[in-house]
């Protein structure tokens, strides 16, 4: 048996948390021996969250304390808060729980999920990192959170060892400085919201005097905190501090809560005395690998099955693919998941050729499967299917890398009256559910749908168009998913007026950068102090657990974050 001593306040906080979330099944307690070897220096973390600190405005704000920290930091101005909702509650829930809004579904200050289970049923809860600390192999760690937001202290972080309620940012600064001077916390979290208040009163812009003054004031508070921290007798001797300063959301105009880049992208600074300065920039291509089959598949799906039907009209479908086998006639994308149903689907044969199946309400299935070059050879290829009317019939022609494939002299005739090509199945990228067929592993980019038939010349001449708004048929674009967002729970739809029809990601997906980029992307010039690493607020708990040497149980469900381990040679040990 493992005997664990918990601080009295942590026990009380835990009991409060459990009683307030009784509809949810808590993650099981997880106790194990610390698997990391002891090194010189007791690791500690200071996390400072600033509501309303915009990544797009950071440089123009010219903040002395934070700019000074960059010289010993890994930092980014494009840390992703979330891809959907950036309210205060949603942003702090993501920051402290390690899961995105798509999972926790917390939007307002009640900190209750929008997806409450029905009475008598059990849902899924995503508690804060403090909950997991006291259930880890290191429950003795002392934690403290300081904020002037009572609901956050009571509802989001009840398991913290100490919860300090203040009246405003100035009082928060004083409490944090006092804690640094007089206490021995292992994890200290501070919350400042003056920038957000000023942004709402004016604008989240460095040109707004009120906003700039509020951020500069917080910058002086951070200077005071860092001065107190470095004055600790054991700082950088027997104490090994990681300091994280991050915006929790930005703002657009005088508002926030949405999913614009101005609201989503915030600065995040990871400071350590031995860290070499490196700016993290968004990878040129970072996407989710589509793979798996049956019940363990990664898919991207438009939720509304009523959109993107061909109907009785024309349509052009185009997508870039980079992948590999093995193959066994699987569907890999389409507007149906079975050959026997109305709609269309792309699939591959045993040799890696790309094939197309289409069926109207009045016709049997038509397959275009004349052999093509191997689509799945780990190189980027563009496939295009054009459905159009000509000479009283409906036709299909397909292309690979702009070259028309010779299906029945270059086309396939569906007949004079194929009926409506409409399916209630949602538009999907990933394994179809026809049984017995195999699966593949592939990346995607530049998925485009036009509600018109592109000509052969238009297909051929726009394969590598870097600005899709310059496409000759841009006004006919009804779906455009670049698919290299780099973070979040979906592939965003950038077609005009179609932002609500994103491709939602499901399954055990992970975002990964790939150095082999599609031809539509201009490579970022290499910089001596830059690295293509995409960070997100959901990764902060994982990074903190790494630093505090807390082994993470996969059942906790938090976002993996191991990037800091790549820089261990810079900071392991203290002198």
Automatic annotation (TrEMBL):
Mention any Pfam family matching this sequence: Laminin_G_3
InterPro entries in the record: Alkaline_phosphatase_core_sf, ConA-like_dom_sf
Name of the protein this chain belongs to: DUF4983 domain-containing protein
- Specify the species: Niabella yanshanensis
């Amino acid at each position: 048996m493992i005997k664990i001593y918990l601080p009295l306040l942590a026990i009380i906080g835990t009991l409060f948390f459990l009683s307030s979330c009784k509809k949810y099944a808590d993650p099981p307690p997880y106790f194990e021996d610390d698997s990391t070897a002891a090194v010189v220096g007791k690791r500690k973390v200071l996390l400072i969250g600033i509501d309303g600190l915009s990544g797009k405005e950071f440089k123009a704000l010219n903040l002395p304390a934070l700019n000074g920290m960059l010289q010993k930091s890994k930092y980014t101005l494009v840390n992703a808060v979330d891809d959907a909702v950036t309210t205060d509650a949603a942003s702090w829930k993501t920051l402290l729980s390690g899961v995105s809004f798509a999972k926790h579904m917390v939007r307002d200050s009640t900190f209750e999920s929008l997806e409450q289970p029905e009475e008598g049923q059990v849902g899924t809860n995503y508690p804060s990192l403090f909950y997991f600390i006291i259930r880890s192999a290191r429950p003795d760690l002392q934690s403290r959170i300081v904020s002037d937001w009572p609901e956050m202290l009571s509802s989001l972080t009840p398991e913290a060892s100490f919860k300090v309620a203040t009246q405003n940012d100035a009082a928060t600064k004083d409490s944090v400085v006092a804690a640094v001077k007089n206490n021995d916390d292992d994890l200290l979290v501070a919350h400042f919201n003056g920038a957000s208040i000023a942004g709402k009163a004016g604008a989240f812009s460095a040109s707004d005097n009120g906003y700039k003054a509020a951020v500069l004031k917080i910058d002086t508070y951070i200077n005071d905190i860092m001065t107190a921290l470095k004055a600790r007798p054991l700082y950088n001797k027997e104490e090994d501090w990681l300091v994280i300063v991050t915006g929790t959301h930005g703002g657009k105009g005088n508002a926030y809560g949405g999913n614009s880049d101005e609201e989503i992208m915030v600065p995040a600074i990871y400071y350590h005395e031995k860290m070499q300065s490196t700016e993290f920039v968004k990878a040129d291509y970072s996407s989710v690998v589509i793979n798996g089959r049956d019940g363990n598949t990664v898919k991207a799906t438009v939720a509304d099955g009523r959109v993107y039907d061909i109907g009785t009209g024309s349509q052009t479908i185009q997508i870039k693919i980079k992948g590999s086998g093995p193959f066994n006639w699987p569907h890999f994308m389409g507007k149906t998941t079975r050959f026997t149903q109305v709609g269309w689907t792309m699939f591959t044969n045993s040799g890696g050729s790309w094939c197309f199946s289409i069926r109207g309400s009045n016709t049997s299935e038509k397959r275009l499967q004349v052999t093509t070059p191997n689509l799945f050879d780990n190189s980027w290829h563009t496939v295009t299917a054009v459905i159009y009317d000509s000479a009283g019939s409906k036709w299909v022609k397909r292309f690979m890398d702009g070259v028309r494939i010779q299906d029945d002299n270059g086309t396939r005739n569906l007949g004079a009256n194929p009926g409506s090509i409409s399916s209630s199945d949602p538009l999907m990228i990933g394994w179809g559910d026809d049984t017995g067929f195999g699966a593949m592993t592939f990346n995607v980019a530049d998925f485009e749908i036009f509600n018109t038939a592109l000509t052969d010349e238009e297909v051929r001449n726009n394969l590598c168009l870097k600005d899709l708004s310059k496409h000759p048929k841009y006004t006919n674009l009804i779906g455009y998913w670049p698919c290299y967002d780099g973070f979040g729970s979906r592939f965003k739809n950038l077609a005009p007026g179609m932002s609500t029809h994103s491709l939602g990601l499901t399954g055990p997906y992970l975002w990964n950068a790939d150095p082999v980029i599609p031809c539509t992307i201009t490579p970022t010039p290499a910089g001596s102090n830059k690295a293509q690493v995409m960070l997100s607020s959901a990764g902060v708990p994982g990074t903190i657990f790494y630093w505090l040497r807390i082994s993470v149980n996969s059942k906790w469900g938090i976002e993996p974050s191991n990037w800091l381990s790549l820089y261990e040679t810079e900071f392991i040990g203290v002198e």
